[in-house]
């Protein structure tokens, strides 16, 4: 197989995405319009005249060396990862180097291992287990193992820290399988606390609607950020995200708002591409936490994902710690209540194309704490 790589129109890119069962929303052409601080382009792989793969590439310039860029393919590209990688990645490297890239960073959408909710729960209770990888995998994906070894052998450098959160998108995620399941099946798979909270929200009269009040969401999101000590994104970011993703597909992104007696108590953002749905952002009020608005939002999004025929409901990143004393363990404990599974992906990898510039960039990023 001899493939070529070249620029494609956003319309061609979107048409290809629509033929796929699962593509990360970070690999849709609309995402390039969200990341306004990066220059973006859509690329395609061609087998003769047939388009067989796509990528959204985000270009990040080097400080004081604007003619060089880091070419970033978040959770991509969208190619066949099951065979030899060289016919796919070699022409990509040639194309990007010729256009000023000093390195490529990509994140194959390929899993390597999964762990069940029961395994995770037992691991947290076991003092001898401090990390997900200390547990035997419930499932090992041979494609993931092959991709990992293939990238390493081809000179790509892993960017995956042990704690799961690094320079880009998390390697470990928590997902709820939906394919072939009913809402009752999913509810039965949740732990007792989650089921109790969902029932309590209904009993308390929490109402969840799909709305468009981004300002109300953002006010609650900023409140959540102050309480939980993280840096919130500005309102403009969410306005841009909703405008860009909705323009590409009116069903792509939705805002869920949970009210109790007129008060907004929780809000969440759901994104869907094909058969994959993501819980993307969430916010909750400190007051009235006892009415369980966040659980009500999650349950509404899961039910809507099932109704849309999705295969998976993705709760996004987790830290893989099982140490009960680690402050990050609460994140996985919250998500494990959904009864899904912890998933490790291949993670993000760099290929230096201009080693000197890459070393300078790496030094700069280390100094500024990434």
From TrEMBL:
Family according to the record: Belongs to the FemABX family.
Protein's UniProt keywords contain tRNA-binding: no
UniProt cross-references to Gene3D superfamilies, sorted A to Z: 3.40.630.30
Pfam family for this entry, one: FemAB
Keywords, comma-separated and alphabetical: Acyltransferase, Cell shape, Cell wall biogenesis/degradation, Peptidoglycan synthesis, Transferase
Residue stretches in coiled coil: none
Single GO MF descriptor: aminoacyltransferase activity
Stored PROSITE patterns: FEMABX (PS51191)
Name of protein: Peptidoglycan bridge formation glycyltransferase FemA/FemB family protein
Domain of life of the source: Bacteria
Organism from which the protein derives: Streptomyces buecherae
InterPro entries membership: Acyl_CoA_acyltransferase (IPR016181), FEMABX (IPR003447), PG_Glycine_Bridge_Synth (IPR050644)
UniProt record, GO biological process: cell wall organization; peptidoglycan biosynthetic process; regulation of cell shape
């Amino acid at each position: 197989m001899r493939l070529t790589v070249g620029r494609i129109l956003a319309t061609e890119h979107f048409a290809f995405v629509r033929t796929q069962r699962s593509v990360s929303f970070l690999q849709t052409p609309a995402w390039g319009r969200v990341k306004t601080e990066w220059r973006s382009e859509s690329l395609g792989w061609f087998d003769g005249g047939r388009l067989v793969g796509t990528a959204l590439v985000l270009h990040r310039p080097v400080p004081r060396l604007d003619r060089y860029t880091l070419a970033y393919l978040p959770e991509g590209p969208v190619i066949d990862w099951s065979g030899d990688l060289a016919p796919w990645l070699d022409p990509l490297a040639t194309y990007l180097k010729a256009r000023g890239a000093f390195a490529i960073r990509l994140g194959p959408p390929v899993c390597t291992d999964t762990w069940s909710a029961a395994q995770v729960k037992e691991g947290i209770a076991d003092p001898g287990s401090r990390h997900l990888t200390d547990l035997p995998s419930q499932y090992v994906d041979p494609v993931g193992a092959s991709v990992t070894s293939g990238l390493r052998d081809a000179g790509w450098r892993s960017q995956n820290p042990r704690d799961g959160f690094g320079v880009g998108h998390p390697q470990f995620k928590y997902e709820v399988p939906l394919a072939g399941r009913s809402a009752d099946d999913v509810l039965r798979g949740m732990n007792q606390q989650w089921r109790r909270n969902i029932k309590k929200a209904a009993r308390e009269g929490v109402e969840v609607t799909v709305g468009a009040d981004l300002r109300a969401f953002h006010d609650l999101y900023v409140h959540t950020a102050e309480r939980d000590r993280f840096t919130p994104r500005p309102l403009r970011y969410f306005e841009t995200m909703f405008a860009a993703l909705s323009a590409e597909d009116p069903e792509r992104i939705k805002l869920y708002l949970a009210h109790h007696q007129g008060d907004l108590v929780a809000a969440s953002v759901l994104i869907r591409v094909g058969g994959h749905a993501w819980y993307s952002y969430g916010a909750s009020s400190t007051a009235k936490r006892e009415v369980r608005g966040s659980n009500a939002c999650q349950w509404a999004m899961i039910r809507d994902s099932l109704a849309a025929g999705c295969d998976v409901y993705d709760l996004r990143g987790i830290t893989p710690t099982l140490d009960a004393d680690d402050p990050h363990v609460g994140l996985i404990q919250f998500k494990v209540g959904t009864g899904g599974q912890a998933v490790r992906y291949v993670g993000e990898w760099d290929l230096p194309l201009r080693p000197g510039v890459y070393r300078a960039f790496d030094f700069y990023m280390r100094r500024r704490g990434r």
